[in-house]
Design a protein that fits this description.
By secondary structure, this protein is mostly helical. 49% of the residues lie in helices and 0% in strands. Helix 1 (21-39) packs parallel to helix 2 (55-74).
C-alpha cells in the first residue's frame, strides 16, 4: 500500500518513537528470519535486507524467503 516516497513516513510526525514504514519492513523481515531460524530451524539463503531497500525489493525478498520456508516445511516428516 506504500510507495517508495512513503517509506520514511512515521505514524505521527511529532512522536519519533513509532517506526517508519521502512523501519517496519526491515524489522519484520529480520524478525521472521530469526523466528524461523531459532524456533523451526529453517534458514533461508537470501540475505536479511535487500541491497536496494525499496518497496518492491522488500516484497520480492519476502516472497523468495517465504517460498524457501514453505519448501523446508513441506520436506519435513508429518510426524514432525
Amino acid at each position: 500500500m506504500f510507495h517508495n516516497a512513503g517509506l520514511p513516513v512515521r505514524p505521527h510526525a511529532v512522536n519519533q518513537r513509532g517506526r517508519s514504514v521502512h523501519e517496519q519492513l526491515a524489522h519484520q523481515h529480520a524478525s521472521e528470519y530469526l523466528w524461523f531460524r531459532s524456533i523451526l530451524r529453517i534458514s533461508v539463503t537470501e540475505s536479511l535486507i535487500p541491497a536496494l531497500e525499496t518497496q518492491s525489493e522488500f516484497i520480492t525478498r519476502h516472497t523468495l524467503c517465504s517460498a524457501e520456508r514453505r519448501e523446508a516445511l513441506r520436506s519435513r516428516l508429518e510426524t514432525w
